[in-house]
Amino acid sequence: FQNDDKCSVANSQVPLNPGDDGTSHGSGLTEQEPPERGNWTGRFDFLLSLLGYSVGLGNVWRFPYLCYNNGGGAFLIPFTIMLVIAGLPLMFMELSFGQYANLGPVAIYKKFCPLFRGLGYGMVIVSAIVMLYYNLIIAWTLFYMFASFNSVLPWQNCEEWSTEQCYSYEEAERCAARNETYFRRQCYTATEAALKNITHQAEQEVRRPPAEEYFLRRVLGLSAGIEETGEIRLPMAMCLLLAWIIVFLCLCKGVQSSGKVVYFTALFPYVVLVILFIRGVSLPGASTGILFYLTPDWHRLANAQVWGDAAVQIFFALSPAWGGLITLASYNKFTNNCYQDALIVAISNILTSFFAGLVIFSVIGFLAHELQVEVKNVVDQGAGLAFIVYPEVVARLPVSPLWSLLFFVMLLTLGLDSQFALMETVTTAILDRFPNLRDYKIWVVLIVAVFGYFGGLIFTTNSGMYWLQLVDKYAANWSVLLIAIVECILISWVYGANRFLRDIQDMIGQKSRLWMFFWTWMWKVITPAALLFILFFNWVEYAPVKYGDYQYPIWADAVGWAIGVFPVCIIIGMGV
Asked: Quick one: where's region Disordered (predicted)?
């Protein structure tokens, strides 16, 4: 690594101080050099893009559930500790790495360490795979947004897409007001109920709210299993097409265009969260939900599961080792204070997660109050929270289409920011690998978008949800952790943490010895140890993927493992 023609960050650095003759003191920029990569047009372009990439759907639909499930307010302690020892160090390292070299993940490792050039390709492959199904979630939000432009929300009652088990609480309340029994979407008088033993059957019947049936049957058209592919669902395929058109239009000029869009997409979710919070806390039962969310259970801190969940959540929230952080930072000016940016985004991430929990649990408390059940019986995470529980809540509010529209526009903007970074990672990798294509950036983005659309069509079929769960389970899991561990060792031990910190000080100015000591030990010892803990925790807690009660066949698990192993095989193969 000491031999600059073999392995060095500085060797890949773009020209910083052009001489009077127009040449650079670094690598040299001549007329034969390929077109420039470009830069962010303003400091806040980068900061908001980074914030939007790091603050995504997981902050709204996963963190609140983890907090409730792992000791309430006490969960913030392990979450914050893991942020300091694992999340923040990796984010700071990758931002500094990308900014100093001024290159994306594929090109940076080619110059930094040719033996491990596959790390960059591994990062891009992970981002490309996630990009395919992440845009489908954006397509779901678009579908719900269009459905919200109705005077009555379509999931407010049981309609033609419902099964007999669909349980409309509005219909049930109307039946109860007439002293009748509601069973399988019909009202029965006391006499009819007694003759047919309806009352007992109604008590034993599985109750599926309209919002659940709407999502599973109308939106997904879910088949019995992954082996029953079915057909491409045209409405969802059109929404996916619209999602890719939006992404293409926002990224067609690279960071110059996306940097302006993020002023809306990164900040608008906070406006909506504040509005939803004000509305949520005014609802009956909201205080019960918030107390359920915040009440600390200190005994849970002695459980390794809690610390494992905190570590996994913060690692995947800040998204290091996906290539996105390196890509976004590579468009920075050399003197940008990336250390300050990392601190701002890391703190914003944890505060956003906490505040989103208040918003979500205030409305979940209201739903539990309405259904007269305990909060734990209605809480959910992931797609179940965003597309079943929350739609069920807004259907019960006055002016429900407005609240529905606001919520799904917020999900759309949260998702788009992350999708922008994933897409930018892939296109930047192509343009850095083939620099002469930079003059044709629009065509490169268009081709990637077209491939992304056709690659994502499998998720719009009747078995699409099964494929999404499978890919989500394996694509960005332990392979990303392995990439992060190798990256951390390469930079802190092989290249040298002290040497890397001197490079960083060339960009952001001199720092104290204590600052140097802190980050040296973080990168060399504490962060790799934390990453190994997360990796082993993932392996110990491993269970074959399932969706609800559905168990995947063995061949599907094999496909999942193949997807997960592929980036690692690329790294090993290119090294050989």
From this structure: 1-37
